[in-house]
Amino acid sequence: MTNIVITGCSTGIGLEVASYLKERFVRVYPTARSQKDVDMLIALGFCDAMLLDVTKPDTIQSVIDRVLDIDNKIDVWFNNAGYGQVSAIEDLPTDILRKQFETNVFGMHECTRKIVPIMRKQGYGRIIQHSSVLGLISLFGRGAYNASKYAIEGLTDTLRLELDGTKIYPILLNTGPISSNFRKTAVKSLKDNIDIEGSIFRDRYIRTVNGTIKKVPFNEEPISVAKIVHKIILTKKPKRRYYITKATYLLGYLKRLLSTKCLDMLLVRVG
Predict the structure, then answer these.
(1) Does the pLDDT at position 44 exceed 70?
(2) Which long-range contacts (CB under 8 A, 24 or more apart) does 237-243 make?
(3) CB 115 within 8 A of CB 76
(4) Fold of 3-270
(5) Which residues belong to the active site?
(6) Residue of 86, 62, 17 whose CA lies nearest to 224
(7) Does residue 96 contact residue 108 with C-beta atoms inside 8 Å?
(8) What is the pTM of this model?
(9) Which of 45, 103, 114, 199 maximizes the CB count within 10 A of its CB?
(10) In the chain, what percentage of residues exceed pLDDT 70?
(11) What is the pLDDT of residue 213?
(12) Residue 4: beta bridge partners?
């Protein structure tokens, strides 16, 4: 039976992917960064749920050791954990940018560098990196998140070259807008970490906090991601990159088609 380790399964995409795969006879090891969320997963029937905080290397190693002890292999590792910090660049404290990278980039990197030697030893494996449409284009007020996803793109593109000739496949997921608690968490990070009242963008931030910012088009449900992950598991030679949601296809195409000036004019309106 194929197995998969998934980070960030407390809600949204991670939880949906875990549930979808479990129903299709994939052995799922869902993880979450708090014991409360691990207990929730166990209550939902995920008896192999484990504690994993990507910013704490010892918890990553503990999960790897346990999975290997049970199955003696790790077929697929899905680096899904992450969050979005909202803020204009000029309002973004460096320590908050660093915090964004600790989870979205450095945590992902720590998981990846620990799993690659295992997959080299077993001779195969798939590492799914959860990027974003914002790893392809940038939007106003998403600088920290944009930068973290651009970093994931660069690391994964390089890793792919370094694993050329092996049966280990690093795979990028460029998801667009997906229904989840992601936006709720992003609003909380804005309120907690940014001086809203002291910013020239105060009114815009307040609209974001109050939920009056215009709705994102082409929104899809988390099952869209779950179906792609399942496809990656079933495919003999998966693609290097998967676009998820019409927004990703549209913006990815426009980035190739338009000049930087024209694309900026469009993205200012979108953001």
Answers:
(1) yes
(2) 237/169, 238/126, 238/169, 238/171, 239/171, 240/160, 240/169, 240/170, 240/171, 240/172, 241/171, 241/172, 241/173, 241/174, 242/171, 242/172, 242/173, 242/174, 243/174
(3) no
(4) Rossmann fold (3.40.50)
(5) 145
(6) 17
(7) no
(8) 0.94
(9) 103
(10) 98
(11) 52
(12) 28, 76
